[in-house]
Write a structure and sequence with these properties.
Blueprint lengths: L8 H23 L16 H13 L3 H23 L4 H23 L5 H11 L7 H33 L6 H13 L5 H11 L3 H11 L3 H25 L8 H28 L4 H11 L4 H15 L5 H11 L1 H16 L12 H25 L4 H11 L17
Helix pairs in contact: 1-3, 1-14, 1-15, 1-16, 2-11, 2-16, 3-4, 3-10, 3-13, 4-5, 4-9, 4-17, 5-10, 6-7, 6-10, 6-12, 11-12, 11-13, 14-16
Length: 418
Amino acid sequence: MTPAPARIATLDLIRGVAVMGILAANIAAFGFPEFAYMSPASMGPPSTPDLVAWTTTFIVIDGKMRGLFSFLFGASMLLVIDRAKATDEDPATVHLRRMAWLFVFGIAHLYLLWWGDILAHYALVGAIAYMFVRLPVRWLIGVGLACIVLQTVELATLTAYAFDLHASAHRPHAAARIVTNWQLLADQFGQPTPAVIARELAIGLGGWRDLVAWRWTHAVGPITALTVNGPETLGFMLFGMAGLRSGFLTGEWTRRRYTVIAVAGIGFGWLGYAAIAAFDIAHGFDARYVALSWLALATPLRPVTIMGYAAAIILLARPGGWLTMRISAAGRMAFSNYLGTTILCTTLFYGYGLGLYGALSRAQLYCVVVPIWLLMLLWSKPWLDRFRYGPLEWLWRSLSRFAWQPMRGSAFATNRSG
C-alpha cells in the first residue's frame, strides 16, 4: 500500500453536490410522464405545494446541476488526458476508449432502464471535446461562449417555430397535419390531451419488457440529443477545462474572487429564473411560453449561475468536515450513484416495481429524494474505505484499459493514476 497521489478535493466535492442535485432535478421525470417535467400544470391545475415545489426546483436546481456535472466532466476529462501524457500513454487512445465504453453504458441505461440517460450524450460530446484540449484558457472560454450563443439561437428558433405552429393550427380551416403537429409539440411542453396522459401513465405502469420496447421506438436517441443539446454541453465541458487550467475549480483563487462570483452568479441567476417562473405562471403554463422559458430564456442564464454555484461550494467547503467528506465520497463515486438512483427510482415508480408512477404529487416526490441523498452519503465513504473505486467506476476503468483493475484496498490509501 502506497500513498495515493493527491486528488483535487474541490472536484470531488462539486461533483458530489451535482450528482445529488441531479436526482432532485430528475425526480419528476422518474415519477411522472416526460411532459410533466417542464410543467406542474400538465395533468391538471397544480396545488400550492406543487407550484412551490416546481418553482423552487426551477429556480435553484434545474439545469444547474447538469451544468455543474458537465463542468466537472470536462475538468476530469482533461485530468485523465494529462495523466496519460505523464505516463507515456497515447492520450487520444485513452480518452476515446473511455468515451466508447461510456457510450455503451449510456445506451444500456437509456434503453434498458430509463429514457432520461445523459451518459451516451456525454460520451459523444466528450469525444468531440478532445479536439479542444490544447487550447489556452481564454480560447476555451471563447469557444465555450460561442457554443452557448449557438445553443441559444438554435432553441430560440425552435421557440419561434412553436409560436408560428400554434398560430397556424388555430386558424380557421387549418390543415389536419398542422393541428396534429401542434398537439404533438404541446404534448411535449406540458399541455397534453387526456388521452395522452392516460396512455403515458399506462406505459409507465407496464412491465419491464413493455417499457424497453417503448423506449426503443420513442426515446430520444443520443444522435438527436447531440443535435439539440450538444452545443451547450460542449460549452460547459470547455468551461470545465478552463476552470481546471485557471485554478478556479481547484480552489486556487482568493476568497474574495470566489465570493464576488458566488454572489453575482447566484444572485443574477436566481433573479432571472424567478422572473421566468413568474412569466410561466402568468401565462398559465401555455406550451408556447413553457417552450420559450425553458429553451430560449433559461439557456443564457445557466453558465453564470453554475459558476456562482461552483464558487459557493468551494467557499463553503470545510476540509475534513463530516459532511464535506461524505459529499466528496459521493462525488468520487458519481457514476455508481447516478446509475444507482436510476435503479432505485425506476423500481419504486414503474409498474414492474412498486408502481407509484403518477401516484405521488410533485411536492411528495421530494420525500423520496431526501432518503436517497442520505443513502448516497452513508454508503459512499464506507465503500471507498474498503475499495479503491466505486463498483461502476471500477468496471468502466477495467473495460477501458482491457484489464481488470485491482479493487481491494482503501481508495484513500492506495496508489493509482488516471
